Amino acid sequence: MSRILIVEDDAAIVRNLTDFLRGEGFEALAVTGQTQALELAGEGWDLALLDVSLGDGNGFSLCSALKRDYDMPVIFLTASGDEFSVVTGLELGADDYIAKPFRPRELVSRIRSVLRRAGKAGAVLELEGLRVDTEKAQVTKNGREVFLSALEYKLLLAFLNNRGAVLSRAALLQEIWDASGDFVNDNTLTVYIKRLRDKIEDDPAEPRIIKTVRGLGYRVGK
User: Fold this and answer.
1) Domain holding 74: CATH number?
2) What is the tally of structural domains in the chain?
3) Secondary structure in 3-state letters for the chain
4) Is the Cβ–Cβ distance between 21 and 28 less than 8 Å?
5) Considering the entire predicted model, what is its pTM?
6) Do 112 and 132 fall into the same domain?
7) Does residue 112 sit in the same domain as residue 15?
């Protein structure tokens, strides 16, 4: 279970965001300022969500400390259209930013993407009887091993690491591009999604795991 440290002094955002992240399978704890965050930073957090403006300290100096002392992935929560904050945060080493007001599922997708890039996405991913051990690159369905090609495996990870989010075909192509030295185009993607469904769905004709969102792309999970 990935551990998320939220540094935010807006009580309403803290309450809603903490509840949502816990419902998505994360361990989440919120503090209101820089002093509390630094006191907790060494306790094994996988990622920090930082507001720029804090009652105690500021997000920029906190980001610098977390990156320097703990090599912790950081996502900034910024006011919509605040270009200065975005640029400053990224220059300080922030891994991503998201503008307020934000959509919770988009934020979760961004969190999982940053964790995946940082190698902190968790060793085991589970959904609908599927179990993916990312350290062993082993996939099982209801206890029986499922053998996937390199591209099929990478495609499955893209879905599981972005569960709940709608992934467009363009986003999926970017995720699996050149995974095994093969050229992947839009038609090839259709073939690989079909092959993956054939291997992991109970009924590929009525998929319960990889769901088509017509006109938009695909979604795994709620």
Assistant:
1) 3.40.50.2300
2) 2
3) CCEEEEECCCHHHHHHHHHHHHHCCCEEEEECCHHHHHHHCCCCCCEEEEECECCCCEHHHHHHHHHHHHCCCEEEEEECCCHHHHHHHHHCCCCEEEEECCCHHHHHHHHHHHHHHCCCCCCEEEECCEEEECCCCEEEECCEEECCCHHHHHHHHHHHCCCCCEECHHHHHHHHCCCCCCCCCHHHHHHHHHHHHHHHCCCCCCCCCEEEECCCEEEECC
4) yes
5) 0.58
6) no
7) yes
For 187-205, give one letter per residue: b (16+ CB within 10 A) or e.
Answer: eebeebbebbbebbbeeee
Q: For residue 199, give both structure tokens.
A: 């291997």
- pLDDT tens, N- to C-terminus, the chain (222 residues): 688 999 998 888 898 899 888 877 788 999 999 999 999 999 989 999 999 888 888 889 999 999 999 999 999 988 756 778 778 888 888 999 888 888 888 888 888 888 877 776 566 778 888 988 876 778 999 999 999 988 898 889 888 877 888 889 988 887 776 444 455 677 888 999 999 999 999 999 999 999 999 999 999 986
Chain position carrying tokens 């959904």:
127
Question: Are residues 187 and 85 part of one domain?
Answer: no
Tokens of 198: 């054939």
Count of CB atoms situated within 10 Å of the CB of 90: 14
- CATH code (residue 154): 1.10.10.10
Burial of 221 (0-12, 13-18, 19+ CB in 10 A): middle
Nearest to 110 by CA among 95, 123, 93, 100: 95
